[in-house]
Each structure stands twice: as C-alpha cells, then as structure tokens.
C-alpha cells in the first residue's frame, strides 16, 4: 500500500516513514517553497509538490500534485522529466476517469471520511464510492480525508492502492 503524508512548511511528517511526501503550502513564495521542498527531499520519501511545477522541477522532486479542475496532466508531461509523477485530487468517479484519460499517474480520492485536519464543504464520499473509483481506472487511487490507523485497512479492502493524509502521519 502506498502511503503519502501531506505536509506544509513545518514538515511535521518528515519522519513519518511514508512512501511519498506531498508538500503543500499555498502561502509561500516560490523561493521559500523551493527551500522547504529541498529540506523535505532529505527524508528519503518521494517528494511531490502541490500545484507548483516550477518548484518541483527546480528542486528535482519526484512529482507534481494538482487540484481538481487544473490544467490536464498531459500538458505538464511535455516538460516533465522521465518517471515524474503527476497526480490529481478527485471528488467523484467521473473525475477519476477524466484524470486517468488526461494522463494522471495516480489520484487522491476523497474525502472518504470527514477530514480530521480541516473542515470541508464536501460530504464524505464513503467506502462504496472509493471502491467504485478504484474499479473505474487502472492508475492507483489513494484514499484521502479522515484516514486513521483504524480505517486505513477498510480503504485498502475497498480497493485503494494507498492512503494520503495529514493527521495520520503526525502522531
């Protein structure tokens, strides 16, 4: 199972042991974010940069993560190095299919459960929707939103290739 810790400039998940580390901090300048990403790259996880292809490329990060409704992954692929991961956040099965068709390497699907680290205007999608999303595509679908040690196995049983989150990796 792929594990992806999502963190910000505080890098609280740096020692989480997650396979991937997504750095997401919308308040930082490109220069500041580059320094955070470089620090994150010392943890041994594959580092994925949220929304900033320029920073991901400058840092030599493993990939880019895009919010729903972004420029399609295939457009970014033209300037990405070989084996560069591009993922997309999705909230519905149709979005998962679209992300795969547009060249995504993986998707985050959620919120599966009510998020623990923030409030969300989106209703939890649940395990049945996660299972439907995982069956709909060939790329990895990672469960996001309210993931805990207690419900991570249920996400895997529903077909998720992994889990992504903030709170589960901060303890």
Describe the structure.
This protein has 171 residues and is α/β, with parallel strands linked by helices. It has 6 helices and 8 strands; from the N terminus they run E-E-H-E-H-E-H-E-H-E-H-E-H-E. Helix 1 (30-40) packs across helix 2 and helix 4 (93-101) runs parallel beside helix 5 (126-136). The protein is globular. The model has no long low-confidence stretch (mean pLDDT 95).
Give a quick precis of the structure:
Helices cover 29% and strands 22% of the residues. By secondary structure, the chain is an alpha/beta fold.
Oligomer: single chain
The proportion of residues in beta strands is: 15-25%
Helix content range: 25-40%
Q: Which structural class fits the helix and strand makeup?
A: alpha/beta
Shape: globular
Poorly predicted residue ranges: none
Mean pLDDT: 95
Q: N-to-C SSE series?
A: EEHEHEHEHEHEHE
Strand order of the largest sheet: 1-2-3-4-5-6-7-8
The biggest sheet, with number of strands, parallel, antiparallel or mixed sense and barrel status, is: 8 strands, parallel, barrel
Number of E-type strands: 8
Radius of gyration: 15 Å
Question: How many H/I helical runs?
Answer: 6
Distance between the termini: 19 Å
